[in-house]
Specification:
The complex is a heterodimer of chains A (114) and B (115). Chain A is an all-beta fold and 114 residues long. Chain A has no helices and twelve strands. Chain B has 115 residues and is mostly beta strands. In chain B, the strands form two sheets. In chain B, strands 2, 4, 5, 6, 9, 10 and 11 form a seven-stranded mixed beta sheet that branches. A four-stranded antiparallel beta sheet of chain B has the order 1-3-8-7, with no helix packed on it. In chain B, a hairpin with a 2-residue loop joins strand 5 and strand 6. The chains are: A mainly beta (114), B mainly beta (115).
């Protein structure tokens, strides 16, 4: 079955430490890939997206993600986490790469400790 | 500029009642989407509008759910005979033209609780 998997439900990280959030997908072709962040009371905000080309994508707020076709993964990273990065993060795919419907993973909640 | 707004932010209703949820997209955006986010899950697609017409309503769970966008701007999601299983956060998003390379901008959602 086609799916988007975020294996980690909850991650706790110290402020200033690095962060990596995992995302795996299972679709026949390479989909378009997205990472969104959801803070309490806020709408989902797009961090970055990958369509084609360079497999390392830079986004807002110091985030980056790397597409690895061989692993069907699109992991999100940040070298140094700030307390304001505490939020829920969602990986999403556009399966057909020519569509508008996003399929989301279940999300990873990030807690930042001082 | 103003983002996507949704009203109400919270709605509590009783089983069997009718509810309407409103979405005001970013001005000039022709594409509008509704998603539903259940507790502990990611958003799930419900329906997509291109202008005034529902281009894809394949995500609506059953015929109790209906959505309109009569003037190509504001949209209303309507749920008849609500059930406890309808409790969720209903998210609205809009994008400029509705192709996959467009960024979808999400509103803060309406939290629906069916008692």
């Amino acid at each position: 079955a086609q799916s988007v998997t975020q294996p980690d439900i909850h991650i706790t990280v110290s402020e200033g430490a690095s962060l990596e959030l995992r995302c795996n997908y299972s679709y026949g072709a390479t989909p378009y890939l997205f990472w969104y962040v959801q803070s309490p009371g806020q709408g989902l905000q797009l961090l970055l997206k990958y369509f084609s080309g360079d497999t390392l994508v830079q986004g807002i707020k110091g985030f980056e993600a790397e597409f690895k076709r061989s692993q069907s993964s699109f992991n999100l990273r940040k070298p140094s986490v700030h307390w304001s990065d505490a939020a829920e993060y969602f990986c999403a795919v556009d399966p057909s790469s020519n569509d508008y419907k996003l399929s989301f993973g279940a999300g990873t909640t990030v807690t930042v400790r001082a | 500029g103003a983002g996507v707004s949704q009203t109400p932010s919270n709605k509590v209703t009783e089983k069997g009642k009718y509810v309407e949820l409103r979405c005001d997209p970013i001005s000039g955006h022709t594409a509008l989407y509704w998603y539903r986010q259940s507790l502990g899950q990611g958003p799930e697609f419900l329906i997509y509008f291109q202008g005034t017409g529902a281009a894809d309503d394949s995500g609506l769970p059953n015929d109790r759910f209906f959505a309109v966008r009569p003037e190509g701007s504001v949209s209303t999601l309507k749920i008849q005979r609500t059930e406890r299983g309808d409790s969720a956060v209903y998210l609205c998003a809009s994008s400029l033209v509705g192709v996959s390379t467009d960024t979808q901008y999400f509103g803060p959602g309406t939290r629906l609780t069916v008692l």
